[in-house]
Write a structure and sequence with these properties.
Radius of gyration: 29 Å
Largest sheet: 22 strands, antiparallel, barrel
Low-confidence stretches: 1-26, 114-124
Strand content: over 45%
Helix content: under 10%
Number of domains: 3
CATH topology of the largest domain: Maltoporin, Chain A
InterPro entries: Beta-barrel_TonB_sf, CarboxyPept-like_regulatory, OMP_b-brl_3, Plug_dom, Plug_dom_sf
CATH class of the largest domain: Mainly Beta
Keywords: Cell outer membrane, Membrane, Receptor
CATH superfamily of the largest domain: TonB-dependent receptor, beta-barrel domain
Protein name: Outer membrane receptor proteins, mostly Fe transport
Structural class: mainly beta
Number of helices: 3
Mean pLDDT: 86
Subcellular location: Cell outer membrane
């Protein structure tokens, strides 16, 4: 289906639904009364009065009190919750059975300044919730996330692993579709810039249905930013300071009435770190061994701002959501290299490369959302138009010291410079409609267009002694432009009975990819159509136990930077490059699980299987003594395993939640070479103990262990670490002071090895991970 046709359908659908918009302010019985202040007896004007159905967040009907404190509101007969809201007064709620016209006469509100007896409300808000669709993470319930970023949250999330460079794997599979507020965004290219304090919750969907993009092998991670849901004015502020001058401060505030909601949040982050990396590679044919050691220091200063508004009129909501991000990063990486003969240990060559790098990132994401609600809460219509932009400008100044391992000014004998100007654009328009067919069944349909552009302009220069100036190297410099369009339509049918629920869906996606390498004039276009069925079922054995079964077919398209064939030669002996011949992966994913939910605990058990055709993986090839790391399509891969996620209140003051995931992986890359066939068993576990102590203290101990895991060549070694956190609450839990120690025993590092017919290689990388943080936060 051509893009213009899909856009025409979107316009027609939007027009039809907007033409049928209505305003329903419930009719039926009237409810009257007068509002006064308890301390003075004075009438209270401008109080917001609303009727809610129990368990629902949107009012059935609402009004304001007049200058004399009188209010009048009407709604159909039934059971309601009547709520009153006025800044400076405690919120009040009454249970109302509206079976006729009623007059409540006088209702009093209490000023927040009055002395009241202390009321303590205790609730068990679990940090992780498991349901038929996946997991929901509440970051605020894990003290290890204080002062951190999105990646810190994911490191403490069941089934998720985060690599040294921030890459995410889910149940051993890479390739996740990361969304912001349910939308694709260019800002997700740098997840370590999204602060934990700005995140309301994270949803992880391992086997998403046809409503979601079919993109990504492992599933969907949806980041929901804070915007404020409760009526009134609310906010929170957080300040964190840690070792090596690390700092993170943020504030979020929202004001919501029955007619509108406005919200904003700001975060400042300064993060400093040091690290080292060691690599050893032996090339069998040359009988030589290369040893490399890298020392690094870096500092990142970033600002994040999220903001928006919702306006409610009748059964309609219009919303705007924006997110702005800017950061400056500076790094110094010093690489020491030695190449020696194996038999004699004679030095073949040695050199030092010192790379002083600065990077400026700016990004902006905005969305306009229209939502139409109906009297039937199972019916809805939603249209979203969004656009995001990200610009990264990087400067690298590389000093080269050949034939020495002493990087002093007198030994400097080479200089190089590199400039990277990278821009990303993502534009989306989508419409979703849900309508019940009966009391048990409903149908959902939608369309979506996703248009992306990636423009990477890379200029590499070398210093020429004879002219005393830098000259562009055309063999390395390049400009790579990537464009794609993904146009989709889906339909889902759902049915629910007291014992059995099921959802069956089908999604169709048309993909058009256009790449252009400017300096060679090489253009490449791809065009294809895929169908993606999905199935989700839930069988309710009893009130506590359920069984679930789900299946989905998915796709993982190669990213722009993987397709760019030009090399990154920051290290001339270890080169990283893309592959313009990559094809998308096609995935079949199956999951069977058991959900057990009790009053103070829950246990989820999942069996999962995933088969991938055309597995995308990085392989290392050695040519003329130089190693090239590049992505390649392997024949197949498959993984299968089991996952346990448990949460329980052992006592009123001790909560435990943990997970255990074990899986077998098999990779067949015999199309690349016989040494690219590998298989192995891997497992990981995460455990968090939370203790509520006397005098407002709480304590958490968080442990993570990830076993060794195979790759197409070799394996990554096991890693483990423990975090500890203590918090003291003040002012009826509105304020808190926390102390966090990450990686108490300084054990977290990344290491691995590879063995092929032509070479062996091992690496060890260690960042500064033992960090002490002090945080203060206040909720108002």
């Amino acid at each position: 289906m051509k893009p213009t046709v899909l856009f025409s359908i979107a316009v027609v659908l939007t027009g039809v639904f907007f033409a049928n918009l209505g305003f329903s302010q419930g009719e039926g019985y009237s409810l009257r009364g007068k509002l006064t202040a308890e301390d003075s007896g004075d009438p209270l004007p401008f109080v917001q009065v609303a009727l809610f159905k129990p368990g629902e967040s949107r009012p059935v009907s609402f009004s304001d009190s007049d200058d004399n404190g009188n209010f009048s509101i009407s709604a159909p007969g039934g059971e309601y919750l009547l709520r009153f809201f006025l800044i400076g007064y405690d919120e009040k709620e009454l249970e109302i059975n509206l079976n006729g016209n009623k007059n409540l006469e006088t209702v009093t509100l209490i000023s927040e300044n009055q002395d009241l007896e202390e009321v303590v409300v205790q609730s068990s808000k679990f940090p992780i919730r498991s349901d038929a669709e996946g997991l929901t993470i509440n970051p605020s319930q894990n003290l290890s996330n204080l002062g951190g970023t999105l990646l810190d949250i994911l490191r403490n999330t069941p089934s998720v692993s985060v690599s040294e460079d921030g890459a995410i794997t889910l149940r051993g599979s890479s390739g996740t579709n990361v969304l912001i507020n349910g939308r694709n965004s260019s800002l997700t290219q740098n997840l370590d810039q999204i602060p934990a304090s700005a995140i309301e919750q994270i949803k992880i969907i391992n086997n998403p249905n046809a409503r979601y993009d079919a993109e990504a092998e492992a599933g969907v991670i949806d980041i929901v930013l804070k915007k404020g849901e409760n009526l009134g004015t609310h906010g929170n502020a957080e300040l964190t300071y840690g070792t090596r001058g690390r700092a993170n401060t943020g504030i979020n505030i929202n004001h919501r009435t029955l007619r509108y909601n406005v919200f904003a949040g700001y975060n400042f982050r300064r993060w400093r770190s040091i690290g080292e990396r060691r690599t050893e590679r032996e090339i069998f044919e040359d009988e030589e061994t290369l040893t490399q050691n890298t020392n690094s220091t870096d500092e990142n200063i970033g600002h994040n701002l999220n903001f928006g508004a919702d306006y409610y009129f009748g059964d309609n909501i219009i919303s705007y959501e924006g997110f702005f991000q800017t950061s400056d990063d500076s790094q110094v990486n010093t690489l020491f290299s030695e190449l020696r003969q194996n038999e004699t240990n004679d030095l073949v060559l040695d050199y030092v490369r010192r790379n002083r790098e600065t990077e400026a990132d700016d990004g902006f994401d905005n969305a306009l959302i229209y939502e139409r609600t109906f009297d039937n809460k199972d019916k809805s219509f939603k249209v979203v138009a969004s656009n995001s932009y990200r610009n990264q400008y990087k400067i690298q100044n590389i000093d080269i010291y050949r034939n020495t391992l002493d990087p002093t000014p007198e030994n400097l004998n080479g200089m190089e410079r590199a400039f990277t100007d990278e821009k990303r654009y993502v534009s989306i328009i989508q419409a979703d409609y849900i309508s019940p067919l009966s009391s048990d069944a409903k149908i959902e349909a939608g369309i979506k267009s996703n248009i992306r552009k990636f423009d990477n302009d890379y200029i590499y220069t070398r210093f020429q002694e004879n002219i005393q100036d830098f000259v562009v190297d055309p063999n390395v410099s390049n400009r790579f432009i990537y464009k794609d369009q993904i146009h989709a339509a889906y339909m889902i049918y759902s049915n629910s009975t007291p014992k059995f629920d099921y959802t069956v869906g089908l999604r169709g996606e048309y993909t058009f990819v256009d790449t252009f390498l400017e300096n060679t004039g090489e253009a490449n276009q791809q065009e294809y159509v895929n169908l993606f069925p999905s199935l989700q079922t839930l069988y309710k054995i009893d009130e506590e136990n359920s069984l679930k079964l789900s299946y989905s077919r998915r796709i993982d398209r190669p990213t722009a930077w993987r397709l760019n064939p030009f090399p990154d030669i920051t290290d001339s002996l270890s080169v990283r490059r893309g592959n313009s011949n990559l094809q998308p992966e096609l995935i079949h994913s199956l999951e069977f699980g058991h959900l057990a939910n009790f009053e103070n605990s829950s246990l989820t058990t999942n069996l999962f299987y995933r088969h991938v055709d055309g597995q995308l993986d990085f392989v290392t090839l050695v040519e003329d003594g130089i190693s090239y790391s590049q992505p390649a399509n392997l024949n197949t891969s498959e993984s299968y395993g089991v996952e346990f996620i448990g949460i329980t209140d052992i006592t009123p003051w001790w909560n435990v939640n943990g997970s255990f995931t074990a899986f077998q992986i098999r990779v067949d890359g015999s199309n690349v070479g016989e040494e690219f066939v590998n298989q192995g068993f891997a497992w990981n576990t995460k455990l968090m103990n939370s203790f509520t102590l006397p005098m407002g203290f709480s304590f958490q101990l968080v442990g993570n262990y990830e076993s060794a895991e195979i790759e197409a060549q070799g394996r990554d070694l096991a890693q483990y670490y423990i975090d500890a956190n203590v918090q003291k609450s003040f002012w009826e839990n509105k304020g808190a002071l926390s102390l966090s120690i990450r990686d108490i025993f300084d054990t977290r590092r990344f290491a691995g090895n590879a063995l092929t017919n032509t070479f062996r290689q091992s690496f060890y990388a260690k960042r500064e991970t033992r960090i002490v943080m002090i945080s203060a936060k206040y909720r108002f």
